[in-house]
Amino acid sequence: AAQSAKPNVVILATGGTIAGAGASALNSATYAAAKVPVDKLLAGLPELANVANVKGEQVSQIASESFTNDNLMKLGKRVSALVKQADVDGIVVTHGTDTLEETAYFLNLVIRTSKPIVVVGSMRPGTALSADGALNLYDAVSVAASKDAAGKGVLVTMNDEIQSGRDVTKKTNIKTEAFKSQWGPLGMVVEGNNYWFRAPVKRHTLQSEFNIDEFEALAPVEIVYGYGNVSRTALDAVGKSGIKALIHGGTGNGSVADRIVPALQDVRAKGIQVIRSSRVPDGFVLRNAEQPDDKYDWVVAHDLNPQKARILAAVALTKPMDSKELQRIFWQY
Ligand SMILES: NC(=O)C[C@H](N)C(=O)O
Q: Any bridge partners for residue 62, and if so which?
């Protein structure tokens, strides 16, 4: 009876280092990701029963650098179906860290629920000394089981912190303090207790105009990078590939090299949306600063890095819209 009084949390496993295994305890960076099945992960962490009744489901078993739009759609459809069930109180997604921020933002945009959804990974495989996956997963389940987490959008628990899935990004590799947000964490988990300090203000989940139940495929979007001596070769190739939007990961304030400006104008002339982001990890891109966005009919990515801008454009452009409408969406989400 005591057990059934606990919240029910479903753990959807997708792979990554949190399901990784190395040859020895000293292999913290040399190992194979996506090896350990979810049942084995859960069996190794009996303490989860302290905070929730957990059930595991293997959705995929891949390293997250290989995630595709199809992987996102399959995962999102499953999350959407589960949150509609009365006997599910929260969802945890185990995921590789390399594209974790993209999946977390995607779910934040397309799942219409106030139930907690927490995406979690690890920097070291479970076989390594000082492995971080078990505690990160315990923290994730405790947040997914918590009423305080409801309505705060998709969350990420790494390194004792509760982060907004929209804001968080992988800022460093190797080290366990890999996930940061320029706007700060929302809270912390200590010994399974959640401590909250702030909440997101951008539109998400229940307040989102997007719903994964209403579309079957994401819009094709590619990213092209800015750097010294950049040529238009990559941009021209991508412009011919049938995309709906192009993200320009520009230098500085989203600046664009003089010889790239006409290439972006050619892309826009084909009806492809041009979205200016920046390769600088923090800060944000202002409209009509660096480039005359009104004149060129371009969009700015606000504070979204190129990979998050790709997710928002891929979701938004599942509906037909002009650049004004797309810009509104980039301000609001
Ligand atoms: N730490 C990790 O999870 C990295 C791994 N390459 C992945 O994203 O699947």
A: 15
- Does residue 133 sit in helix, strand or coil? helix
What's the mean per-residue pLDDT of the chain? 97
CA 193 vs CA 18, 157, 200, 316: distances in Å: 22, 12, 20, 36
Write out residues with Cβ below 6 Å of ligand 1. 16-17, 33, 63-65, 96-98, 121, 123
H-type alpha helices, 240-322:
261-269, 293-296, 306-316
Instruction: Please state the pTM of the whole predicted model.
Output: 0.98
| Catalytic member of 14, 97, 99, 103 | 97
Q: How far is the CA of 144 from the centre of ligand 1 (A)?
A: 22
Q: What's the token pair of residue 98?
A: 């390399």
Helices 306-316, 100-110: inter-axial angle, 10-degree rounding: 30
The structure tokens listed for 46 are 């009996």
Q: What value does the mean pLDDT take over residues 138-166?
A: 98
205 given a catalytic annotation: no
Which atom of ligand 1 is found nearest the CA of 65? 8
Tokens 């002009």 belong to 322
Q: Is the pLDDT of residue 1 over 50?
A: no
Please choose, from the candidates 310, 240, 242, the residue with its C-alpha nearest in 3D space to the C-alpha of residue 275. Answer: 310
Under 8 Å between Cβ of 279 and 225:
yes
Q: What is the largest CA-CA distance in the chain?
A: 69
Q: How far apart are CA 191 and CA 51, in angstroms?
A: 11
Query: In the structure, what pLDDT confidence band is assigned to residue 4 with cuts at 50, 70 and 90?
Result: low
| pLDDT reported for residue 54 | 98
Its sign, for the CA torsion 172, 226, 156, 87, is negative
Given a cut of 80, whether residue 142 has pLDDT beyond it is yes
The rounded distance, in Å, linking the Cα atoms of 2 and 12 is: 24
ipTM: 0.97
In this structure, are residues 323 and 264 in contact, taking their beta carbons and an 8 Å threshold? no
pLDDT band at 3 (very low <50, low <70, confident <90, very high): low
